[in-house]
Amino acid sequence: xxxxxxxxxxxxxxxxxxxxxPILLLHGWGCNTDTFNTIRPFLEARFRVLTVDFAGFGQSDxxxxxWGVEEYTRSIEALAKAEGVENPILIGHSFxxxxxxxxxxxxxxxxVMLVDSAGVKPRRSFSYYRKVYTFKLLKRLAPIVLGKxxxxxxxxxxxxxxxxxxxxxxxxxxxxxxxxxxxEDLCHLMPKITAPTLLFxxxxxxxxxxxxxxxxxxxxPDAGLVTVAGAGHFSFLENTPLFLRVAESFLQxxxxxx
Length: 258
Known about the structure:
eight-stranded mixed beta sheet; single chain; alpha/beta
């Protein structure tokens, strides 16, 4: 069932289907509730599943100011409270994993599944910082040298060539949001997650490398890691049968309570 929830004047879309222990399904950056279409039928047959469009994605409104992971987490906490969701199971992919980490670090949750999750700040090379600060300097000096119109054309061309696809496809507001959240390191919160946590990871993931998963496994007190051979950043879609078998095993106790 499609529903809408108002949070800080924003209209947020989510679906609410099935019965049983509540699950919050939280998608990655640039995605929406449809990302989970292949796994939702399995979960909805066994649980109450709330699948959320984060602000700025799917059918949800964009934030009117620059949000970080904290603001996104608060929106999910408010939704859970409004729907009477207590002690949920969290399944977060990529950016949704960031929100799951913050949520689980300060709320009672039953279990957590982090799927190719973000949350470990990426290591940056010297060349990365050189490019970033060169671009910032260019943005400041180009209008003076070339004039505003020509400078804007050059900056847009440079951004399109050098920026990530997520950044280039985002609106001006969501570009600012992405720049903020991608640099947030959540490692200090991971030891506060007391719920059993399963890490499900693509072996060849380049967006959130397997090294991130291994670091999370060490930092989260009760965590285990399942790696998916040959899979990348969308491991749950690249090997859906394996994901569903692992999820069924990990959540068997909650399934049996129905």
